[in-house]
Amino acid sequence: MKRLGTLDASWLAVESDDTPMHVGNMQIFSLPENAPDTFLRDLLDRMKADFEVAQPWCYRLVRPGALGRIIAPAWKVDKKIDLDYHVRHSALPRPGSERELGILVSRLHSNPLDFARPLWECHVIEGLENNRFALYTKMHHSMIDGISGVRLLQRVLTTDPTETNMLPPWSIRPKSTRASKTDREASINGAFSQAMEALRIQADLAPRLLSAMTRLVRSARHPNEDLTAPFSGPRSILNKRVTGQRRFATQHYRLDRLKALAKRADASLNDIVLYLCGTALRRFLIEQNSLPEETLTAGIPVNIRPADDEGTGTAISFMIATLATNEANPRARLEAIRESTRRAKQHLQTLPRAALNQYTMLLMSPYILQLMSGLGGRMRPVFNVTISNVPGPEQALYYEGAKLEAMYPVSLIAHGGALNITCLSYDGSLNFGFTGCRDTLPSMQRLAVYTGEALDELDLLLKPGRSRTRAGATGQQATRSAAARKTRPGSGQAKSARKAPEGSE
What is the pTM of this model? Predict the structure, then answer.
């Protein structure tokens, strides 16, 4: 058996009917030229053939009851996996638009995983317009994080469009990695040894951790002077209780366009992503008559996995930054975001890599305690919304001759955080996945369209030679116009992108 790390086990501890802790990935493929009518049926047959099921796909949770998820949870290899259960075939109703695809993925993502089996499912979805099909895969977050999930799915794909008879994703092992402390036997002696080693490491790193946490506390007492601290964001409609049903919407933009804007603004690509999300959220909340006077804050996962580590499990830290949603001037909003992320990155860089896991647990412990105690969504949030940016494959990939056209992340939400925005880059595009609570955030899919309009506004704002005063006035006028204009759910469209699949019905 393999023991779970502390952060991995925490995802099990907060699992509930309303907050299933699985993450997903939706891939859209175009069928090969001259593909037979039986292409997808044959693909399913090959996927379910008698292949070895590799780690982590073969792991089943030991003692999946409530107590077992908290006290010494461990993975055990399941040697009798029913692939007919885990690998499923669905079809979209005609005409098979991306709206129907969004509705189906929303429903599939709303269903919890079966804890008596390995915690994953794969759905092959046929009938997507323009001779395409989709592959939706979900796994529990205790098994995998965003970076390792993308790497795991990427390894089954190829750059050769002529390659066939390829293995399914669950038959390819992750590359060998450095020995992990969580790979030890799940025994009393192993647990004691790991606990003693953790105490030794924490004692060595205690002064650095104390200094980092002291800075966070000082920032909370003196806002706007240093870091964006936990609990500094206001209560908002994004931070209510959630139910089990999800909405999912997508949007994508050319990566070179975003990078060019980042260069013009002397900002990072992540800063541009945060600006688009913050601007879209500002408009969305104005239309809901729910914009707080204080700025919303974003919790931003940061990958701490070494570049050559293709293992699974969670290897992330967190930083918190402002979205400047209280700032009407777009240029001032961008500047505030850029300064906030600069300070947050600088703060993380003061910590050695060995201390990041402990720092992450200390930073996230109030969030985990809110969820475990039932206080999530009933008190001030640790941060208002999760926004992450995951690097993906840089070149076009294929599976059985079918070209991968796009990849979209489908994430998790919890009480007190009814919206998650995750971006994934692929082959020159940045793909946004918006995952929200169906009941808490009606019309959430508008956010996908609003990010495109924010991008067009930013492009205009940063044109060479444009005066700051004139650009700021234009941005404020656009905000006032957005507040005055009411749009129907799903109406409107970013000029720079295709229509976003919506999880609404």
Answer: 0.82
